[in-house]
C-alpha cells in the first residue's frame, strides 16, 4: 500500500508539473495571438513597411524571411546530410571522431548572438559580403548545422542493422546500401528534423542583426539580376527579416503604430512557426506510413 501511494503521489506531481508547463505555453501563445491577430490583414501582410508613418506592412520582411530560409536550407541540408552519413555509416571509433562530435556539441550550445558576431567578423568583414542574405544564410548554417547533423546521424542510427545486412547480402556496395536502403528508411525522421530546423531559422533574429542587416530595400519584381540590390532573387542585398523587424520596431520606436505593427508581426511569426512544428509531425507520419506500406 505504501508503494502504491508513493507511486500515485509521484504520478500526480508529474501530471501537475506537465499541466502547469502546458498552461503557461498555451497562455503565452493565446496572448500573442489575441493581441496581434486583430492587426493582421491582407494589406498588412503584403504592404511595405514604414519608418515614420502609421499603416506600414510586413510584405518585404515576410518575403525576405522565406527567401533567406530557402538559401540557408540549400547550403545546410547537403552539408548536414554528408556529415550525418559519414558519422553514422563510415566514421570509426577513435579520438578524431570523438573530437568531431565534441565540436558539434559545442557549436550546438553557442548562443545565437555569438554566431551572429562570428558571422559579422568572417562573412561581412573578412569575406567582404557585407550585410547581405548570403552572409545571413552562412551564419545561420553555422548556427543550425550541428543540430541538423545530429538529427541526420540519429535518424540513420535508428535504422535496424538488418536493413544494411540485407542490402549487402544482395551484392550491392556499401554506398548503394546507404543511398537506396538506409536513407529512404530514415527519410521521415530526417525530413521532420529539417522542417523543425526551418522553424528555428525562420524565427531567428540575433544572428541576422549582424549579418543580413536591418533594412528592407524596396524590391523591383521586374529585375531578375542576381547581383542587383533591388532584385528579389539577389543574395547580395540587405534583407531585414520578420523577426529582426519585430526587434527593430520595439527598439527604435519611431513608428506611431509601432505597438500594433509589433503585435501583428509577432502573431504572424508565431503562426508560421506553429505551422512548421505541426507540419513536421504530420509530414513525418505521412512519409513513415507511405514508406512502410510501399
TrEMBL record:
SUPFAM superfamilies: MetI-like (SSF161098)
UniProt-listed InterPro entries: MetI-like (IPR000515), MetI-like_sf (IPR035906), Phosphate_PstA (IPR005672)
Subcellular location: Cell membrane
Cited Pfam families: BPD_transp_1 (PF00528)
Gene Ontology molecular function, alphabetical: phosphate transmembrane transporter activity
CDD domains per record: TM_PBP2
Major site of localization recorded for this protein: membrane
PROSITE patterns: ABC_TM1
Record lineage: Bacteria, Bacillati, Bacillota, Bacilli, Lactobacillales
Name the UniProt record assigns to this protein: Phosphate transport system permease protein PstA
Gene: pstA
Stretches assigned to the ABC transmembrane type-1 domain: 62-280
Annotated transmembrane regions: 12-34, 66-87, 99-123, 260-280
Keywords: Cell membrane, Membrane, Transmembrane, Transmembrane helix, Transport
Domain of life assignment: Bacteria
Keyword Transmembrane: yes
Amino acid at each position: 500500500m505504501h508503494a502504491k501511494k508513493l507511486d500515485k503521489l509521484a504520478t500526480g506531481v508529474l501530471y501537475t508539473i506537465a499541466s502547469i508547463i502546458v498552461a503557461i505555453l498555451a497562455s503565452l501563445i493565446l496572448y500573442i495571438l489575441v493581441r496581434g491577430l486583430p492587426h493582421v490583414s491582407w494589406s498588412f501582410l503584403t504592404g511595405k513597411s514604414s519608418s515614420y508613418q502609421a499603416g506600414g506592412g510586413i510584405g518585404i520582411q515576410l518575403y525576405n524571411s522565406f527567401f533567406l530560409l530557402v538559401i540557408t536550407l540549400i547550403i545546410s541540408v547537403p552539408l548536414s546530410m554528408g556529415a550525418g552519413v559519414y558519422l553514422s555509416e563510415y566514421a570509426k571509433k577513435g579520438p578524431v571522431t570523438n573530437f568531431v562530435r565534441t565540436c558539434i556539441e559545442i557549436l550546438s550550445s553557442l548562443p545565437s548572438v555569438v554566431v551572429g558576431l562570428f558571422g559579422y567578423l568572417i562573412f561581412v568583414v573578412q569575406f567582404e559580403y557585407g550585410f547581405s542574405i548570403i552572409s545571413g544564410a552562412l551564419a545561420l548554417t553555422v548556427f543550425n548545422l550541428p543540430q541538423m547533423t545530429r538529427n541526420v546521424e540519429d535518424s540513420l542510427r535508428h535504422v535496424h542493422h538488418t536493413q544494411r545486412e540485407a542490402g549487402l547480402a544482395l551484392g550491392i556496395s556499401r554506398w548503394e546500401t546507404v543511398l537506396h536502403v538506409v536513407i529512404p528508411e530514415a527519410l521521415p525522421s530526417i525530413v521532420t528534423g529539417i522542417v523543425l530546423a526551418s522553424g528555428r531559422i525562420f524565427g531567428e533574429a540575433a544572428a541576422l542583426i549582424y549579418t543580413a542587416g536591418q533594412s528592407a530595400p524596396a524590391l523591383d519584381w521586374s529585375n531578375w539580376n542576381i547581383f542587383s540590390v533591388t532584385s528579389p532573387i539577389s543574395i547580395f542585398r540587405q534583407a531585414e527579416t520578420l523577426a529582426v523587424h519585430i526587434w527593430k520596431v520595439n527598439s527604435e520606436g519611431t513608428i506611431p503604430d509601432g505597438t500594433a505593427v509589433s503585435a501583428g508581426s509577432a502573431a504572424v511569426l508565431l503562426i508560421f512557426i506553429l505551422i512548421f512544428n505541426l507540419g513536421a509531425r504530420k509530414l513525418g507520419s505521412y512519409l513513415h506510413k507511405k514508406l512502410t506500406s510501399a
